[in-house]
Design a protein that fits this description.
Length: 363
């Protein structure tokens, strides 16, 4: 019996909490004094022979619902057969808006892309059930794109993360260094599915292909196809045909790499393209030069409302940083309401029809 008890004890896994990686010292009672009207009501004074700090005894944290543009009301949500729901369209240096992130709906099932922090409560307020979102795609490891993913895998269990081995290993090294959580422990928090650059993979009954963007660190954009329609996302990239051609002529870029960057799928039904300060983001003038037909299908993301261009983009009504947290762009409507069996669950297609090996970690 003793051996069995010992074996059972070994199976018990320690579940990490915030206190495992951050110490929160508490002040001894003798050093904590409540002051009266001299400091104002509800003020606390910390003293150890002298005043160390004076703080209010209660703090009201800002409600993230007022952080963006819309006060969200929970309503029943029916996912489109194919479409996008925006969670934010700005960048990491904008204190007034949420970073660029969204849900791609494929066959009525969701894939989170670069979820902003607090995306879980956002989705709940939108009335989107967590069970209809199956995975998270990380484009790269800049904080305004991957911080929400780290938050999600620490709050939820068995999150499936889709990206390349290079990017996921960068993600692991970064957040292990930031949190002091060993890499093996972070790995246990999620399921990794390797995206194969340039190859189409089955996803939720549709297809997805990731491709390298042109950024300061490894970064991937992607194209999704479903029902004869397509959505493409540039991710953070420098799309400037003239500059890319010059870099190729100087031998800085290979011809194959330059051709891949120039061959962006602007024929997609919905184009989500970033815009920002070159040379690490796409200059506005390069998007201004696109054909009107392309611009009619293009939404600018990774831009602030204050920096939104006016002309000639005024002929793109509602398409320049005008999306709000609850904006859903439908490309294909559901042919019938999503199935809701007596158990209350949705009928889910497999994650990948042809699944890459899970947790195929590279060194």
């Amino acid at each position: 019996m003793g051996g069995a008890d010992d074996a059972s004890k070994k199976k018990v896994k320690h579940r990490r909490s915030v206190s495992d990686v951050q110490e929160f010292p508490s002040a001894p009672t003798r050093t904590l004094k409540r002051r009266g009207s001299a400091l104002g009501a509800d003020m606390l004074q910390f003293a150890e022979g002298e005043v160390l700090a004076r703080v209010p005894d209660s703090v009201e944290l800002p409600n993230f619902r007022t952080f963006g543009l819309l006060d969200i009301r929970p309503v029943p949500f029916v996912p489109p057969a194919f479409g996008v729901t925006f969670l934010g369209t700005s960048h990491g240096f904008d204190p007034k808006s949420s970073t660029t992130g969204f849900v791609v709906w494929i066959n009525g099932v969701g894939m989170l892309v670069d979820p902003p922090p607090n995306s879980g409560p956002m989705l709940e307020l939108m009335g989107i059930p967590p069970r209809i979102i199956r995975n998270v795609l990380v484009t790269h490891c800049h904080a305004d794109h991957d911080a929400g993913t780290m938050q999600k895998i620490m709050l939820d269990e068995n999150v499936t993360v889709v990206t390349t081995p290079t990017i996921v290993n960068s993600f692991l090294r970064k957040y292990s260094a930031l949190t002091d959580i060993p890499i093996p422990d972070i790995k246990k928090r999620f399921i990794f599915r390797s995206a194969r650059v340039g190859q189409w993979m089955d996803l939720f009954g549709g297809e997805i292909r990731v491709f390298y963007a042109f950024h300061t660190i490894p970064c991937v954009g992607f194209e999704v196809r479903f029902g004869g329609k397509s959505v493409v996302y540039s991710a953070d990239t420098f799309y400037d045909p003239k500059a890319i051609t010059e870099l190729c002529e100087k031998g800085i870029l290979t011809r194959k790499r330059a051709e891949a960057l120039l061959d962006f799928p602007f024929d997609a039904d919905l184009i989500l393209h970033e815009c920002g300060v070159p040379p690490i983001h796409t200059p506005l003038k390069c998007l201004e030069e696109l054909d009107d037909d392309v611009k009619s299908r293009l939404f600018l993301v990774h831009v602030t409302a204050s920096s939104s261009p006016r002309a000639p983009f005024s002929r793109w009504p509602g398409r320049v940083s005008k999306t709000r947290w609850s904006s859903t762009r439908t490309i294909a409507s559901p042919r019938s309401p999503p199935p809701s069996p007596s158990s209350g669950g949705y009928a889910m297609p497999p994650l990948f029809a042809t699944s890459p090996s899970p947790n195929s970690w590279s060194s």
